[in-house]
Design a protein that fits this description.
Blueprint (H helix, E strand, L loop, with lengths): L1 H15 L11 H22 L1 H7 L1 H14 L9 H13 L9 H16 L21 E3 L3 E6 L20 E7 L5 E6 L1 H9 L13 H11 L4 H17 L3 E3 L4
Antiparallel strand pairs: 1-5, 2-3, 3-4
Helix pairs in contact: 2-4, 3-4, 5-6
């Protein structure tokens, strides 16, 4: 069994890295079939998962990066969709040795979030009650499991073949990326205040549930951050309705 496992390891290394010698007894022509099959599967999947990353690097550099990932980084999950998340681990752990732009890791993470939302099996309840005007302040709201509040140094939502900043701007980029009831993955640019506020609506698994309405939560939030509730109540009302309308905040049925 040890000899068989050693043989498997030699074969897998040769499949991941065609630059090493073929294992003894395996014809190079036959080995190349597997090398091409594995690489093309990885290449196609990662190109679909990270299309902007691919365009930013160009095909030649992108192929080299995919090859380096296959060669150097272990993929331990048996699930094909886990490859994209493992690719992020590879980028983070290998950043100092990769010839990629400074914004590349953040861009890859942003694209992975879009993929994760697209394939998530989380679902909305069929009913969405109307919350008119200030009635939304009396509702118990939670952040949708299909919404990510994100902060980046670079404006990742703007990066593409024609816009590749060399330095991060003075102000960070705050986004909420979400999937709505129409199965569309979208993003919304937000400010730091909204990003901090969205954290208040997250469901914290190991904390006791607090029955706070959206209005109570906002008042507590303002007190902690030195804001006047009366000064922002109109803005907060519009913001809550926008987040609820876009399925970023949901009605909490558990309370």
């Amino acid at each position: 069994m040890e000899s068989f496992q050693l043989r498997q390891q030699q074969l897998s290394r040769a499949i991941r890295n065609p630059d090493i010698d073929s294992p003894e007894g395996i014809e190079a022509r036959r080995l190349k079939i597997y090398q091409d099959l594995f690489f093309n599967n990885f290449y196609d999947f990662l190109s679909q998962a990270f299309p902007v990353c691919r365009r930013v690097l160009g095909d030649s550099q992108w192929r080299s990066l995919v090859r380096q990932f296959m060669r150097d980084h272990p993929c331990r999950s048996p699930y094909f969709l886990s490859i994209a998340e493992t690719f992020l681990e590879f980028l983070d752990q290998s950043q100092a040795h990769l010839s990629v732009p400074d914004f590349f890791n953040e861009l890859a993470h942003y694209e992975w979030v879009e993929l994760a939302l697209d394939v998530s099996d989380a679902e909305f309840e069929t009913e969405k009650p109307e919350l008119h005007e200030k009635a939304i302040f009396d509702a118990n709201l939670i952040l949708s499991p299909l919404a990510y509040s994100l902060a980046y140094r670079f404006p990742v939502q703007q990066i593409g073949a024609d816009f590749q900043p060399e330095m991060p701007p003075a102000e960070a980029t705050f986004l909420v990326v979400y999937r709505n009831r129409d199965e569309q993955v979208k993003f919304m640019a937000i400010n730091q205040f909204t990003a901090l506020l969205l954290r208040e609506f997250e469901v914290r698994e190991f904390e006791p549930a607090q029955e706070r309405t959206a209005g109570q939560l906002l008042e507590d939030f303002c007190d902690r951050h030195g804001q006047s509730w009366s000064a922002i109540s109109s803005f907060a009302l519009d913001l809550l309705h926008q987040l609820y309308r876009n399925d970023i905040l949901l009605l909490d049925r558990q309370r």
